[in-house]
Amino acid sequence: MSEPLGIGLIGCGTVGSGVARLLTQESERLATRAGRSLVLRRVAVRDPSKPRAVTLPAEMVTTDIAAVVRDPAIPIVVELVGGTSLARTVVRDALAAGKHVVTANKALLAAHGPEIFAAARQAERTVCFEAAVAGGVPIIRALAESLAANQVTAIQGILNGTSNFILSAMSEKGMSYADALAQAQKLGYAEADPTLDVDGSDAAHKLAILAQIAFGVVAQPAEIERHGIDTIDALDVRYADELGYTVKLLAEAWAAERDSPTPTVALHVAPVLLRKTDMLAQVRGAFNAIQVVGDVVGETLYQGPGAGMMATASSVVADLIDLAVGRAQKTFAVANLWSGGTSRFSVVPSDKVRSRFYLRLLVRDLPGVLADVCQALADQEISISSVIQHEAVEGHPEQVVPLVIMTHTAETARMRDAIATIDRLAAIVTPAVHYSVDD
Ligand code: NAP
Ligand code: HSE
Q1: Which of 29, 73, 183, 214 is spaced 20 to 30 A from 354 at the CA atom?
Q2: Cβ 161 under 6 angstroms from ligand 2
Q3: Which of 3.40.640.10, 3.30.70.260, 1.10.10.10, 3.40.250.10 would CATH assign to domain 353-438?
Q4: pTM for this structure?
Q5: Does 191 contact ligand 2 (Cβ within 6 A)?
Q6: CA distances from residue 193 to 154, 162, 188 in whole angstroms, order as listed
């Protein structure tokens, strides 16, 4: 067996503690898989006195990140602090010091992928990031290695465990949004700033990474249109349920005009109504699932725990094993990610994407209102498939009724134009709510 491989851990919170546990408690199994021992040498944290989910010798723990990064007995640095500021410095310094880097930081890669990968190539070192997308689900390897013979044509994924946990708890247990979010935080699923989870940003970061691997595009997170679950009304979860649908936060990439010299890909994150029988609709709790369509293989589905201590540690440690074996270095060199080369695909807005729509309005219960709403849809050539007018909203000062309209397939841009007209109608009480419906 080769000589032991030293590992430095920067950050020992939810994920870091899981990694430290695996490295210290399963060392024999890991050594067999890696062909050499993986030895945790140093751990940098902000507050060494904090209780942790792993017991480490006091002399292993430090607040001095630079000392860990520069330690000559540490050829691999694992960045698990999160965020895009300190983490960026840690990764840059580690690469400059000749270390390989393993990270679970999707926000960092989505924002600074080109810079980080250029630094890695210059230093002739490797950056591994399986844990950055979908926690314990090996989607990075699936896309970069197992589907390498394909041109991916579509990706549809539940990529944020916290949002999926909240939506499941609200629809299955009738839990309030605030209670479900608090529980997701307690279980270690949420980001340090949970706004990133619930406003769709975290899923957009992950989609940007998948889009780089699948389409070669560099999509800045800000360019990805996103809507989160933070604005979802429990009313719509209930109406969707009555109609036979489940609301899921989906990150989607749709390729178009693939055979033209200038193919496009539309990227967006939004709540979507899925039929309850759909495979993605049945993904519950903090689980993630990603459906990838390849032009050779057809439809494939990857599913598993998308967040949490040990699930995420599983992916981080798999990266460490791949580095120890030398597999990761080879894939890294060939995949040439964020290399500055131009992609065949260009990122376009989602306006042209076609789907059915769920439209929910709160309207004053007056003659002619339904006719006006229908006219606005007709003017955009949007055909209605069903209309349900619910009973008046209890406790509302006026005679206000919810109107739920399901449409046939329409272009997103046309639906938006119709909604702009509808929102200007005098009888509309609050802005229209609309979600794509995926049958
Ligand atoms: P976390 O629990 O907040 O842990 C962050 C760690 O970084 C803590 O140990 C903290 O030290 C340390 N740290 C923060 N600032 C520091 C500083 N200035 N100096 C030294 N150490 C510092 O975060 P996490 O949930 O483990 O997430 C880590 C990364 O994994 C993030 O990029 C996240 O997006 C990603 N990720 C998380 C999950 C998940 O399920 N949680 C899943 C996939 C990916 P103290 O402990 O002393 O405060
Ligand atoms: N906060 C993230 C989530 C962690 O809930 O999915 C996994 O990346």
Answers
A1: 214
A2: yes
A3: 3.30.70.260
A4: 0.96
A5: yes
A6: 30, 12, 12
